From TrEMBL:
<comment type="pathway">
    <text>Cofactor biosynthesis; tetrahydrofolate biosynthesis; 7,8-dihydrofolate from 2-amino-4-hydroxy-6-hydroxymethyl-7,8-dihydropteridine diphosphate and 4-aminobenzoate: step 1/2.</text>
</comment>
<protein>
    <recommendedName>
        <fullName>dihydropteroate synthase</fullName>
        <ecNumber>2.5.1.15</ecNumber>
    </recommendedName>
</protein>
<dbReference type="Pfam" id="PF00809">
    <property type="entry name" value="Pterin_bind"/>
</dbReference>
<keyword id="KW-0289">Folate biosynthesis</keyword>
<dbReference type="GO" id="GO:0046654">
    <property type="term" value="P:tetrahydrofolate biosynthetic process"/>
</dbReference>
<dbReference type="InterPro" id="IPR045031">
    <property type="entry name" value="DHP_synth-like"/>
</dbReference>
<dbReference type="GO" id="GO:0046656">
    <property type="term" value="P:folic acid biosynthetic process"/>
</dbReference>
<keyword id="KW-0460">Magnesium</keyword>
<dbReference type="InterPro" id="IPR000489">
    <property type="entry name" value="Pterin-binding_dom"/>
</dbReference>
<keyword id="KW-0808">Transferase</keyword>
<feature type="domain" description="Pterin-binding">
    <location>
        <begin position="1"/>
        <end position="250"/>
    </location>
</feature>
<dbReference type="InterPro" id="IPR011005">
    <property type="entry name" value="Dihydropteroate_synth-like_sf"/>
</dbReference>
<dbReference type="InterPro" id="IPR006390">
    <property type="entry name" value="DHP_synth_dom"/>
</dbReference>
<dbReference type="GO" id="GO:0005829">
    <property type="term" value="C:cytosol"/>
</dbReference>
<dbReference type="GO" id="GO:0004156">
    <property type="term" value="F:dihydropteroate synthase activity"/>
</dbReference>
<keyword id="KW-0479">Metal-binding</keyword>
<dbReference type="GO" id="GO:0046872">
    <property type="term" value="F:metal ion binding"/>
</dbReference>
């Protein structure tokens, strides 16, 4: 899954793709590099990020989505707002990537009737504004797993079948470095929930905390993290660097073909 941020304040490439044309050109590059899905976001979810109103978020994401729909690449829209979900689905979105796991009022109703639309349910402790202030867990893996199990149950009850779902432990969303490392190390624990796992580690500060590299220099650690996530059971990796990630995953995938 290639990342397209149409935001002025995303932690890695904020501002770069704010203009619609530049975002579309970047998306086309990621398609050429082999992206299987594109994730378009109009509101940054980085720690301390600013709220964006519905109209502004729609103005950012819809023109990019509309320009890419004809390419045939499945498009995910990264949003927690029901109005944005509805418009994006009407415009042809294939997935809604909600870092708030459909907990906002109106979101379940926005997506439930659209049986062809996939949904990513992500774990987050707190909100992007405050989540890194003091994240607390007694047992990170079982608490995140319990949260995802409860959200799967809640969305199923709202009429959304499990075959429409993807789950994500939410690396960096209300977690310390130790929490993130425990989640990555035990990512395979989440496979028992029976839902495909998405992992987003690309260029995140947890990687820089280990290597000391700043955000623009985290290619190698991002590729390593994506590969490790795949080995531990992730089916989708959300990345900025599609070409390098694809090459690394191709090696792992080739070893998996041997087992078939
Ligand atoms: C929008 N966004 C930023 N980081 C993310 C992650 O790790 N997972 C998902 N699903 N979305 C993310």
């Amino acid at each position: 899954m290639g990342i397209i941020n149409v935001t002025p304040d995303s932690f890695s490439d904020g501002g770069l793709y704010l203009s619609t044309q530049r975002a579309i050109a970047h998306a086309r590059d990621l398609i050429d590099e082999g992206a299987d899905i594109l994730d378009i976001g109009g509101e940054s979810t980085r720690p301390g990020s600013q709220y964006v109103n519905v109209d502004e978020e729609l103005n950012r994401v819809l023109p990019v989505l509309e320009a890419l729909v004809d390419t045939g690449i499945p498009i995910s829209i990264d949003t927690s707002k029901p109005e944005v979900m509805k418009h994006a689905i009407e415009a042809g979105a294939f997935m809604i990537n909600d870092v708030n796991a459909l907990r906002n009022p109106g979101t379940l109703e926005a997506v439930a009737p659209h049986k062809h639309v996939q949904i990513c349910l992500m774990h987050m402790q707190g909100t992007p504004q405050s989540m890194q202030a003091n994240p607390q867990y007694i047992d990170i893996v079982s608490e995140v797993k319990d949260f995802l199990r409860q959200r799967i149950h809640a969305v199923n009850t709202a009429g959304i079948a499990s075959n429409r779902l993807v789950i994500d432990p939410g690396f960096g969303f209300g977690k310390t470095l130790q929490h993130n490392l425990a989640l990555l190390n035990q990512l395979n624990e989440f496979t028992t929930l029976g839902i495909p796992i998405l992992a987003g580690l690309s260029r995140k500060s947890m990687l820089g905390a280990i290597t000391g590299n700043n955000v623009s220099q985290r290619l190698h650690e991002s590729v390593a993290a994506a590969l490790l996530a795949a080995v531990k059971g992730a089916r989708i990796v959300r990345v900025h660097d599609v070409k390098a990630s694809k090459a690394a995953l191709a090696i792992y995938n080739a070893t998996q073909e041997l087992d078939k």
